[in-house]
Design goal:
This protein has 291 residues and is α/β, with parallel strands linked by helices. 32% of the residues lie in helices and 32% in strands. Strand 1 and strand 2 form a beta hairpin.
Length: 291
């Protein structure tokens, strides 16, 4: 039996976030994001533990100090899945990409989850907590966290090479952004979201949107990522993008302010782009009608 603890951390919640799992000093892993939530970290820690131990036939005993994670996996996930990843109230499940990946990783596995009180001296939980906090602190400094040794023989790309990318999404835009500055990359990726050939390809749009993406449209409606992916398609009319301002807010965070012009007028738009796992993704978007 493999006995491990999994934990997450977010400095600000949301803020620089980390995750970690720990078996012993020779077998542990950590990672995170420049901007995320504690729940994202808790979920990702369990997901990476499952993925990295997938080549082993041992039963897995996981200590978690998050009842949210334990209940999500053991009680709520099956119902969410039957409802098309909607809650009982009909709203989209939060952290749905992580949930879907966890659902896939749990298939055929023998896993027991046990709640443990955090910061109460549990040896494995404390070790995971220290590493998750260290990962979050590294992102706060603009550094890359120590990935840890991981599981020997794991076929999973280690160290967590796909941090923040829980969907298997192709890198469709590497040719587009080669040899460009970060700011120029963000502008070109924003323009790609206005092209019909991209908007007609769900996987292409998904690759450009952060798992926690949201948008407040010009109508004031709040859009969630899964809803947009199900609804997006070619534009009614071509839109041109005129850059008004591009600002680097942090090493992996860029704010783009631009004007969208089309036959039916112009709108002011702002997009927050975040680099996760080496790739820029739109984290938030807002549109405002221009008077």
């Amino acid at each position: 039996m493999i006995i491990a603890a999994a934990d997450g951390s977010a400095l600000g919640n949301p803020g620089p976030a980390g995750w970690a799992w720990y078996v012993d000093d020779t077998c542990w892993a950590s990672g995170g994001w420049p901007h995320g939530t504690n729940n994202m970290g808790e979920l990702m820690a369990v997901l990476d533990l499952l993925q990295q131990s997938a080549h082993l036939d041992d039963e897995l005993h996981v200590f978690c100090d998050s009842t949210y994670v334990i209940n999500a996996i053991t009680k709520w996930m099956a119902g969410w899945k039957r409802k098309g990843w909607k809650t009982g109230g009909g709203t989209p499940v939060k952290n749905v990409e992580l949930m879907k990946a966890l659902d896939a990783a749990m298939q055929g596995r023998r896993v027991k989850f046990e709640w443990v009180k955090g910061h109460a001296g549990h040896e494995l939980n404390e070790a995971a907590d220290v590493r998750a906090n260290a990962a979050a602190a590294a992102y706060q400094r603009g550094d890359v966290p120590d990935p840890g040794p991981g599981f020997a023989g794991s076929s999973t790309d280690h160290p967590a090479a796909k941090v923040g990318q829980v969907e298997e999404e192709p890198d469709l835009f590497s040719d587009l952004v080669d040899d460009l500055s970060d700011e120029e990359q963000v502008i070109e990726l924003e323009r790609s979201l206005l092209r019909d050939e991209v908007r007609s390809d769900r996987s292409a749009v998904a690759a450009l949107l952060h798992p926690q993406w949201q948008e407040i449209g010009t109508s004031g409606v709040l859009w969630e990522r899964d809803v947009l992916l199900d609804d997006i398609g070619p534009l009614d009319a071509p839109v041109t993008l005129d850059v008004l301002n591009v600002s680097r807010l942090a090493p992996d965070l860029i704010l783009l302010v631009w004007r969208a012009s089309s036959d039916d007028g112009s709108r002011l738009r702002s997009s927050l782009w975040q680099r996760s796992g080496g790739h820029w993704q739109q984290r938030f978007h807002q549109g405002t009608a221009e008077g």
